[in-house]
Amino acid sequence: MPVRPSPFRRPLAYIIAALLPLLQGCTLPCPGDSPVIVTNLRFSPSAFDSFARNTEIRYTLAAPVKVSVAILRSDSEAGTQLVKTLFTELSESKGVHAHTWLGDTGQGRFAPAGEYTGVVTVSSQRFETTVRIFHF
Predict the structure, then answer these.
(1) Before 45, cis peptide (omega within 30)?
(2) 70 vs 9, 101, 113, CA distance in Å?
(3) How confident is the model at residue 77, as a pLDDT?
(4) pLDDT at residue 33 tops 90
(5) 71 located within any domain
(6) What does the alpha-carbon distance between residue 116 and residue 105 come to, in Å, rounded to a whole number?
(7) Which helix or strand (DSSP H or E) is residue 11 part of?
(8) Any domain includes 12
């Protein structure tokens, strides 16, 4: 008695053949691909008098991660210097976050007027935004 092929084999082959052209444009995530985890990074307000008020560094996280937040200042003579570390390896959930910076240094003094950079680091990814301090 001859062996009959399964009636399901042939339709499955047609389905696979029909789907292959559609899959050619798709790419699977690779270890080197890293989605943007931090979005909407900004200071609010983006310029402030630290003698009168403070500012917030705000951002949105696409997933729960550990973040480090620091304030830096670039100077033509001294180069880039750490002004203050706000957090190191802080566990945060997915969503919107805000942290206050008083406009002070790590030594508790008022930072001088000028432009500063807020840096949010997640793993090896670094995200930056700027803020200006002025004094009346």
Answers:
(1) yes
(2) 60, 10, 18
(3) 79
(4) no
(5) yes
(6) 11
(7) helix 9-23
(8) no
16 belongs to a structural domain: no
Query: What pLDDT, on a 0 to 100 scale, did the predictor assign at position 76?
Result: 74
Q: Tokens for 94, please give them.
A: 């997915």
What is the amino acid identity at position 31? P
- Strand ranges, E, within the chain: 38-44, 47-48, 55-61, 65-75, 79-92, 95-101, 114-122, 125-133
Residue 92 lies in a domain: yes
Tell me the backbone φ, ψ of residue 79, rounded to 5 degrees: 80, -160
Residue showing tokens 């480090």:
68
Count of structural domains, the chain: 1
Range of the domain at 83: 38-133
C-alpha 5 chain-centroid distance: 55
Q: What is the per-residue pLDDT for 35?
A: 75
CATH code for the domain of 47: 2.60.40.1940
